[in-house]
Amino acid sequence: MRAAYALLLLPLLLSGCSREEEAVRDIFAMDTYMYLKAYGDHADTALGTAAERILSLEELFSVTSENSDTWAINHAGGEPVQVSQDTMTLLQTAKEIGTKTDGALDVTLYPVLSAWGFTTDTQQIPTPETLAAALELVDFREITLEGDCVQLPDGMQLDFGALAKGYTSDCVTGILRENGVESALVNLGGNVHAIGSKPDGTAWRVGVQDPFSPSEQVCILEIEDTAVITSGNYERYFTGEDGQNYWHILDAKDGFPADNGLVSVTIVGEEGLLCDALSTALFVLGTEGAMDYWRTEGGFEMILVTEDAKLYYTEGLADTIRLTGTMPAEVLTHDKAD
Ligand code: ADP
Ligand code: MG
Fold first, then answer.
1. Taking Cα atoms as reference points, which of 301, 307, 213, 328 lies closest to residue 263?
2. Residue 5, domain member (yes or no)
3. Rounded distance between C-alpha atoms, residue 113 and residue 236, angstroms
4. Which of 51, 192, 282, 323 has the fewest CB atoms nearer than 10 Å to its CB?
5. Considering the domain boundaries, does residue 214 fall inside one?
6. What is the value of pTM for the model shown?
7. Which protein residue has the closest C-alpha to ligand 1 atom 5?
Protein backbone atom coordinates (compact mmCIF):
# COMPACT_ATOMS: atom_id res chain seq x y z
CA MET A 1 0.00 0.00 0.00
CA ARG A 2 2.75 2.39 1.01
CA ALA A 3 4.75 1.45 -2.13
CA ALA A 4 1.79 2.31 -4.37
CA TYR A 5 1.43 5.65 -2.60
CA ALA A 6 5.12 6.37 -3.19
CA LEU A 7 4.71 5.51 -6.87
CA LEU A 8 1.85 7.94 -7.15
CA LEU A 9 3.94 10.65 -5.56
CA LEU A 10 6.97 10.09 -7.74
CA PRO A 11 5.68 11.77 -10.93
CA LEU A 12 4.52 14.74 -8.87
CA LEU A 13 7.95 15.12 -7.32
CA LEU A 14 9.66 14.77 -10.68
CA SER A 15 7.46 17.37 -12.33
CA GLY A 16 8.01 19.63 -9.32
CA CYS A 17 11.78 19.37 -9.76
CA SER A 18 11.61 20.08 -13.46
CA ARG A 19 9.55 23.26 -13.25
CA GLU A 20 12.11 25.56 -14.85
CA GLU A 21 11.91 29.14 -15.88
CA GLU A 22 10.74 29.47 -19.50
CA ALA A 23 11.84 32.31 -21.75
CA VAL A 24 10.69 32.97 -25.32
CA ARG A 25 11.57 35.35 -28.17
CA ASP A 26 9.82 36.11 -31.46
CA ILE A 27 12.13 37.60 -34.05
CA PHE A 28 11.62 38.51 -37.68
CA ALA A 29 14.95 38.24 -39.45
CA MET A 30 16.33 36.77 -42.68
CA ASP A 31 12.85 37.14 -44.16
CA THR A 32 11.64 34.55 -41.66
CA TYR A 33 9.51 34.42 -38.50
CA MET A 34 11.71 32.91 -35.82
CA TYR A 35 10.66 31.54 -32.46
CA LEU A 36 13.10 30.68 -29.69
CA LYS A 37 12.16 28.94 -26.45
CA ALA A 38 14.63 28.14 -23.68
CA TYR A 39 14.49 26.88 -20.10
CA GLY A 40 16.58 27.46 -17.00
CA ASP A 41 17.84 30.24 -14.76
CA HIS A 42 19.82 31.98 -17.50
CA ALA A 43 17.36 31.39 -20.33
CA ASP A 44 16.14 34.96 -20.74
CA THR A 45 19.59 36.57 -20.80
CA ALA A 46 20.85 33.84 -23.13
CA LEU A 47 17.97 34.44 -25.54
CA GLY A 48 18.71 38.16 -25.51
CA THR A 49 22.31 37.49 -26.56
CA ALA A 50 21.14 34.97 -29.17
CA ALA A 51 18.66 37.48 -30.64
CA GLU A 52 21.41 40.08 -31.01
CA ARG A 53 23.58 37.52 -32.76
CA ILE A 54 20.76 36.66 -35.19
CA LEU A 55 20.39 40.32 -36.13
CA SER A 56 24.13 40.75 -36.61
CA LEU A 57 24.32 37.61 -38.79
CA GLU A 58 21.38 38.91 -40.83
CA GLU A 59 23.31 42.13 -41.43
CA LEU A 60 26.48 40.19 -42.28
CA PHE A 61 24.89 37.80 -44.82
CA SER A 62 22.21 40.06 -46.35
CA VAL A 63 22.45 40.24 -50.11
CA THR A 64 20.76 43.67 -50.18
CA SER A 65 22.44 45.49 -47.28
CA GLU A 66 25.44 47.54 -48.37
CA ASN A 67 27.18 46.77 -45.07
CA SER A 68 27.17 43.00 -45.52
CA ASP A 69 30.02 40.67 -46.43
CA THR A 70 27.82 39.38 -49.25
CA TRP A 71 27.45 42.87 -50.72
CA ALA A 72 31.22 43.46 -50.44
CA ILE A 73 31.97 40.20 -52.29
CA ASN A 74 29.33 40.85 -54.98
CA HIS A 75 30.48 44.42 -55.64
CA ALA A 76 34.27 44.03 -55.47
CA GLY A 77 34.71 44.04 -59.26
CA GLY A 78 36.73 40.83 -59.12
CA GLU A 79 39.12 42.00 -56.38
CA PRO A 80 39.75 39.95 -53.21
CA VAL A 81 37.64 40.93 -50.19
CA GLN A 82 38.39 40.34 -46.53
CA VAL A 83 35.43 38.70 -44.78
CA SER A 84 34.42 37.53 -41.32
CA GLN A 85 35.04 34.01 -40.05
CA ASP A 86 31.25 33.42 -40.21
CA THR A 87 31.17 34.15 -43.93
CA MET A 88 34.27 32.04 -44.50
CA THR A 89 32.61 29.09 -42.72
CA LEU A 90 29.55 29.38 -44.98
CA LEU A 91 31.70 29.61 -48.09
CA GLN A 92 33.77 26.56 -47.14
CA THR A 93 30.64 24.45 -46.63
CA ALA A 94 29.08 25.87 -49.80
CA LYS A 95 32.14 24.86 -51.81
CA GLU A 96 32.41 21.45 -50.18
CA ILE A 97 28.77 20.49 -50.68
CA GLY A 98 28.76 22.14 -54.12
CA THR A 99 31.64 19.88 -55.12
CA LYS A 100 30.21 16.73 -53.54
CA THR A 101 26.84 17.27 -55.25
CA ASP A 102 28.34 18.30 -58.58
CA GLY A 103 26.83 21.78 -58.40
CA ALA A 104 23.35 20.88 -57.10
CA LEU A 105 24.19 23.43 -54.42
CA ASP A 106 25.57 26.52 -56.14
CA VAL A 107 25.72 29.71 -54.08
CA THR A 108 26.52 31.78 -57.20
CA LEU A 109 22.97 31.34 -58.56
CA TYR A 110 21.98 34.85 -57.49
CA PRO A 111 21.85 36.34 -61.04
CA VAL A 112 19.41 33.57 -62.01
CA LEU A 113 17.33 34.08 -58.85
CA SER A 114 17.18 37.78 -59.83
CA ALA A 115 16.08 36.93 -63.37
CA TRP A 116 13.10 35.07 -61.88
CA GLY A 117 12.48 37.92 -59.44
CA PHE A 118 12.90 35.67 -56.38
CA THR A 119 15.01 38.43 -54.88
CA THR A 120 12.09 40.90 -55.00
CA ASP A 121 8.32 40.95 -54.45
CA THR A 122 7.44 40.41 -58.12
CA GLN A 123 8.33 37.24 -59.94
CA GLN A 124 8.20 36.39 -63.62
CA ILE A 125 9.29 33.68 -66.02
CA PRO A 126 12.51 35.02 -67.58
CA THR A 127 13.00 35.01 -71.33
CA PRO A 128 15.39 32.32 -72.63
CA GLU A 129 17.92 35.09 -73.45
CA THR A 130 17.80 36.59 -69.95
CA LEU A 131 18.13 33.14 -68.41
CA ALA A 132 21.05 32.16 -70.64
CA ALA A 133 22.87 35.43 -69.85
CA ALA A 134 22.34 34.94 -66.10
CA LEU A 135 23.47 31.30 -66.25
CA GLU A 136 26.76 32.41 -67.83
CA LEU A 137 27.54 34.02 -64.48
CA VAL A 138 26.98 30.88 -62.40
CA ASP A 139 29.72 28.55 -61.20
CA PHE A 140 30.65 28.14 -57.55
CA ARG A 141 34.01 26.67 -58.63
CA GLU A 142 35.08 30.21 -59.54
CA ILE A 143 34.97 31.30 -55.89
CA THR A 144 38.52 31.56 -54.56
CA LEU A 145 39.13 31.36 -50.82
CA GLU A 146 42.51 32.29 -49.39
CA GLY A 147 43.13 33.02 -45.72
CA ASP A 148 40.31 35.37 -44.74
CA CYS A 149 39.81 36.65 -48.32
CA VAL A 150 37.23 35.77 -50.97
CA GLN A 151 37.50 36.50 -54.65
CA LEU A 152 34.67 36.27 -57.15
CA PRO A 153 35.04 37.11 -60.86
CA ASP A 154 33.53 40.46 -61.84
CA GLY A 155 29.81 40.22 -62.57
CA MET A 156 29.22 37.02 -60.59
CA GLN A 157 27.08 37.28 -57.44
CA LEU A 158 26.42 34.94 -54.56
CA ASP A 159 23.78 34.59 -51.86
CA PHE A 160 23.59 32.46 -48.74
CA GLY A 161 19.84 31.79 -48.75
CA ALA A 162 20.45 28.05 -48.87
CA LEU A 163 22.62 27.87 -45.76
CA ALA A 164 22.40 31.02 -43.63
CA LYS A 165 19.57 29.85 -41.37
CA GLY A 166 21.22 26.50 -40.65
CA TYR A 167 24.43 28.27 -39.63
CA THR A 168 22.42 30.74 -37.56
CA SER A 169 20.79 27.89 -35.65
CA ASP A 170 24.27 26.50 -34.86
CA CYS A 171 25.32 29.91 -33.53
CA VAL A 172 22.13 30.30 -31.48
CA THR A 173 22.34 26.85 -29.90
CA GLY A 174 26.05 27.51 -29.22
CA ILE A 175 25.27 30.75 -27.40
CA LEU A 176 22.46 29.15 -25.38
CA ARG A 177 24.70 26.25 -24.32
CA GLU A 178 27.56 28.61 -23.36
CA ASN A 179 25.06 30.42 -21.16
CA GLY A 180 24.12 27.25 -19.33
CA VAL A 181 20.87 26.46 -21.17
CA GLU A 182 20.30 22.70 -21.27
CA SER A 183 16.83 22.68 -22.77
CA ALA A 184 15.70 24.79 -25.72
CA LEU A 185 13.96 24.70 -29.07
CA VAL A 186 15.09 27.08 -31.78
CA ASN A 187 12.69 27.42 -34.71
CA LEU A 188 13.96 29.55 -37.57
CA GLY A 189 10.92 29.36 -39.84
CA GLY A 190 10.73 25.60 -40.06
CA ASN A 191 14.46 25.08 -39.54
CA VAL A 192 14.35 23.55 -36.08
CA HIS A 193 17.26 22.91 -33.72
CA ALA A 194 16.87 21.35 -30.29
CA ILE A 195 19.07 21.54 -27.21
CA GLY A 196 18.71 18.62 -24.83
CA SER A 197 15.21 17.37 -24.14
CA LYS A 198 12.08 19.10 -22.86
CA PRO A 199 12.32 20.21 -19.23
CA ASP A 200 10.27 17.14 -18.21
CA GLY A 201 12.95 14.91 -19.72
CA THR A 202 10.95 13.73 -22.74
CA ALA A 203 12.19 14.34 -26.27
CA TRP A 204 11.22 17.41 -28.30
CA ARG A 205 8.55 16.65 -30.87
CA VAL A 206 9.02 18.26 -34.26
CA GLY A 207 6.50 17.87 -37.07
CA VAL A 208 7.40 17.61 -40.76
CA GLN A 209 4.89 19.53 -42.88
CA ASP A 210 2.79 17.81 -45.52
CA PRO A 211 3.83 19.59 -48.76
CA PHE A 212 0.40 18.84 -50.24
CA SER A 213 -1.41 20.29 -47.24
CA PRO A 214 1.06 22.44 -45.26
CA SER A 215 -1.23 22.83 -42.23
CA GLU A 216 -0.87 19.08 -41.67
CA GLN A 217 2.12 16.91 -40.89
CA VAL A 218 3.38 13.75 -42.54
CA CYS A 219 5.30 12.68 -39.46
CA ILE A 220 6.56 13.70 -36.06
CA LEU A 221 10.16 13.30 -35.00
CA GLU A 222 11.25 12.88 -31.40
CA ILE A 223 14.62 14.55 -31.11
CA GLU A 224 17.26 15.73 -28.65
CA ASP A 225 20.31 17.86 -29.53
CA THR A 226 19.49 17.66 -33.21
CA ALA A 227 18.70 19.91 -36.18
CA VAL A 228 15.74 19.18 -38.47
CA ILE A 229 15.81 21.26 -41.65
CA THR A 230 13.37 21.12 -44.56
CA SER A 231 13.51 22.47 -48.09
CA GLY A 232 10.35 22.27 -50.15
CA ASN A 233 8.76 23.64 -53.28
CA TYR A 234 5.62 24.70 -51.41
CA GLU A 235 7.21 27.46 -49.30
CA ARG A 236 8.12 30.17 -51.77
CA TYR A 237 6.66 29.95 -55.26
CA PHE A 238 4.55 31.84 -57.78
CA THR A 239 2.12 30.74 -60.46
CA GLY A 240 3.26 31.86 -63.92
CA GLU A 241 1.06 33.14 -66.75
CA ASP A 242 1.17 29.61 -68.12
CA GLY A 243 -0.55 28.33 -64.96
CA GLN A 244 2.53 26.40 -63.77
CA ASN A 245 4.08 26.83 -60.35
CA TYR A 246 7.68 28.02 -60.16
CA TRP A 247 9.58 27.76 -56.89
CA HIS A 248 12.69 29.29 -55.36
CA ILE A 249 15.05 26.31 -55.41
CA LEU A 250 16.75 26.36 -58.79
CA ASP A 251 18.78 23.85 -60.74
CA ALA A 252 22.01 25.45 -61.97
CA LYS A 253 22.02 23.00 -64.89
CA ASP A 254 19.21 24.89 -66.70
CA GLY A 255 18.28 27.78 -64.39
CA PHE A 256 14.74 26.42 -63.85
CA PRO A 257 13.15 25.44 -60.55
CA ALA A 258 14.54 22.03 -59.61
CA ASP A 259 11.98 19.42 -60.63
CA ASN A 260 13.48 16.03 -60.03
CA GLY A 261 10.72 14.11 -58.32
CA LEU A 262 10.74 15.68 -54.84
CA VAL A 263 8.38 18.08 -53.11
CA SER A 264 10.31 18.19 -49.85
CA VAL A 265 13.55 17.05 -48.28
CA THR A 266 14.10 17.05 -44.53
CA ILE A 267 17.61 16.56 -43.21
CA VAL A 268 18.19 15.47 -39.63
CA GLY A 269 21.66 15.85 -38.16
CA GLU A 270 23.89 17.45 -35.57
CA GLU A 271 24.99 20.53 -37.47
CA GLY A 272 22.43 23.03 -38.78
CA LEU A 273 24.78 24.41 -41.44
CA LEU A 274 25.37 21.02 -43.04
CA CYS A 275 21.67 20.06 -42.77
CA ASP A 276 20.61 23.31 -44.46
CA ALA A 277 23.16 22.98 -47.26
CA LEU A 278 22.08 19.38 -47.83
CA SER A 279 18.34 20.11 -47.70
CA THR A 280 18.70 22.44 -50.68
CA ALA A 281 21.27 20.33 -52.53
CA LEU A 282 19.37 17.05 -52.19
CA PHE A 283 16.13 18.75 -53.25
CA VAL A 284 17.93 19.63 -56.49
CA LEU A 285 19.49 16.16 -56.86
CA GLY A 286 16.01 14.64 -56.74
CA THR A 287 14.67 11.34 -55.45
CA GLU A 288 17.30 8.95 -56.81
CA GLY A 289 20.15 11.45 -56.44
CA ALA A 290 19.29 12.13 -52.79
CA MET A 291 19.14 8.41 -51.99
CA ASP A 292 22.48 7.78 -53.71
CA TYR A 293 24.08 10.72 -51.92
CA TRP A 294 22.90 9.46 -48.52
CA ARG A 295 24.16 5.95 -49.25
CA THR A 296 27.56 7.20 -50.40
CA GLU A 297 28.23 10.02 -47.91
CA GLY A 298 26.03 9.23 -44.88
CA GLY A 299 26.47 11.16 -41.65
CA PHE A 300 22.86 12.38 -41.59
CA GLU A 301 19.30 11.08 -41.73
CA MET A 302 16.60 12.27 -44.12
CA ILE A 303 12.93 12.21 -45.02
CA LEU A 304 11.93 12.59 -48.65
CA VAL A 305 8.43 13.36 -49.89
CA THR A 306 8.00 12.71 -53.61
CA GLU A 307 5.68 14.41 -56.09
CA ASP A 308 3.68 11.17 -56.34
CA ALA A 309 2.98 11.44 -52.60
CA LYS A 310 5.31 8.80 -51.16
CA LEU A 311 7.43 9.22 -48.06
CA TYR A 312 10.89 7.72 -47.64
CA TYR A 313 12.90 7.86 -44.44
CA THR A 314 16.35 6.57 -43.62
CA GLU A 315 16.69 3.61 -41.29
CA GLY A 316 18.44 5.61 -38.56
CA LEU A 317 15.13 7.40 -37.91
CA ALA A 318 13.21 4.21 -37.16
CA ASP A 319 13.05 4.90 -33.39
CA THR A 320 12.54 8.63 -33.84
CA ILE A 321 9.77 8.92 -36.40
CA ARG A 322 6.03 8.55 -35.93
CA LEU A 323 4.03 8.64 -39.14
CA THR A 324 0.92 10.76 -38.78
CA GLY A 325 -0.53 11.00 -42.27
CA THR A 326 -1.89 8.49 -44.75
CA MET A 327 1.03 8.73 -47.17
CA PRO A 328 2.64 5.36 -47.92
CA ALA A 329 6.08 5.20 -46.33
CA GLU A 330 9.20 3.21 -47.10
CA VAL A 331 12.40 2.82 -45.09
CA LEU A 332 15.68 3.48 -46.88
CA THR A 333 18.48 1.10 -45.95
CA HIS A 334 22.15 1.40 -46.74
CA ASP A 335 22.00 -1.56 -49.08
CA LYS A 336 19.99 -0.79 -52.15
CA ALA A 337 17.06 -3.21 -52.32
CA ASP A 338 16.99 -3.51 -56.12
P1 ADP B 1 14.42 28.12 -47.22
O2 ADP B 1 15.38 29.27 -47.19
O3 ADP B 1 13.10 28.44 -47.83
O4 ADP B 1 14.30 27.42 -45.92
P5 ADP B 1 16.45 26.57 -48.61
O6 ADP B 1 17.34 26.33 -47.46
O7 ADP B 1 16.27 25.40 -49.51
O8 ADP B 1 15.00 27.05 -48.22
O9 ADP B 1 17.10 27.77 -49.43
C10 ADP B 1 16.51 28.30 -50.58
C11 ADP B 1 17.28 29.53 -50.98
O12 ADP B 1 18.58 29.18 -51.44
C13 ADP B 1 16.66 30.28 -52.14
O14 ADP B 1 15.75 31.25 -51.69
C15 ADP B 1 17.86 30.92 -52.82
O16 ADP B 1 18.26 32.09 -52.13
C17 ADP B 1 18.94 29.88 -52.63
N18 ADP B 1 19.02 28.85 -53.68
C19 ADP B 1 18.06 28.39 -54.53
N20 ADP B 1 18.49 27.36 -55.28
C21 ADP B 1 19.78 27.16 -54.89
C22 ADP B 1 20.79 26.22 -55.28
N23 ADP B 1 20.57 25.28 -56.19
N24 ADP B 1 21.99 26.34 -54.69
C25 ADP B 1 22.24 27.28 -53.76
N26 ADP B 1 21.34 28.18 -53.33
C27 ADP B 1 20.13 28.11 -53.89
MG1 MG C 1 18.87 24.86 -47.28
1. 307
2. no
3. 12
4. 323
5. yes
6. 0.93
7. 162
Residues in the chain: 338
Number of domains in the chain: 1
Does residue 34 line the site of ligand 1, with CB under 6 A?
no
Separation of CA 163 and ligand 2 centre (Å): 5
In a domain, 142, yes or no: no
Expressed as residue numbers, the domain containing 249 is: 20-39+185-332
pLDDT along the chain (338 residues), means of 10: 44 51 96 96 96 98 97 98 98 98 98 94 94 98 98 98 98 98 95 97 97 94 98 91 94 97 98 98 98 97 98 97 94 82
Q: Which runs of E-coded beta strand occur in the chain?
A: 22-29, 32-39, 81-82, 144-146, 149-151, 183-188, 191-195, 204-210, 213-223, 227-232, 237-239, 245-247, 262-269, 301-306, 311-314, 321-323, 329-332
Say if 319 falls within a structural domain.
Answer: yes
Distance from residue 162's CA to the centre of ligand 2 (Å)? 4
List the residue whose alpha carbon is closest to atom 12 of ligand 1: 162
